Amino acid sequence: MKRPPRDREFAREVACMIQIDGAQYCLDPAGGLVEVLGKRWTLPLIGVLGNRARSRFSELRDALPGIGSKSLTERLRDLDRLGLVHREVFPEVPLRTEYRLTDAGASLRRALVPLVRWAGSAPPSPPAPAAVKETPRRSTGSPDARRSRKSP
Fold this sequence. Notes:
Blueprint: H1 8-15, E1 18-20, E2 23-25, H2 33-37, H3 42-50, E3 55-56, H4 57-63, H5 69-81, E4 85-90, E5 96-101, H6 103-120, H7 143-150
Antiparallel strand pairs: 1-2, 3-5, 4-5
């Protein structure tokens, strides 16, 4: 099903809903940054990439137990598209590819530290979902009454 076109003014209003001390901050000024950061494995990948000068694909996969090759490839492409990761291919046999954070990626990684510290300080847990009330079933009478209706 095709989505209706988004109203750009409304989208900007929603994206720019943080107002502090008279200044307005937009959640996604970098065209997809929040969406990419919200994907599984993105933040751990940024962390691992920042711990090393350069990393090969297999090193990244080994450093992130549980990540699949497809997911790792997708996250690296997302980060490369946003200019946060640099991919360098060396024309050797066998072909060698290395990844590293760009200056923008390293800056983002540093900016994430206060968020990680905040998350580690045990923010309040979200409230538990309300208990679902079961609707009582309607009775069709006593078991004896039901049996007597079935009998001729």
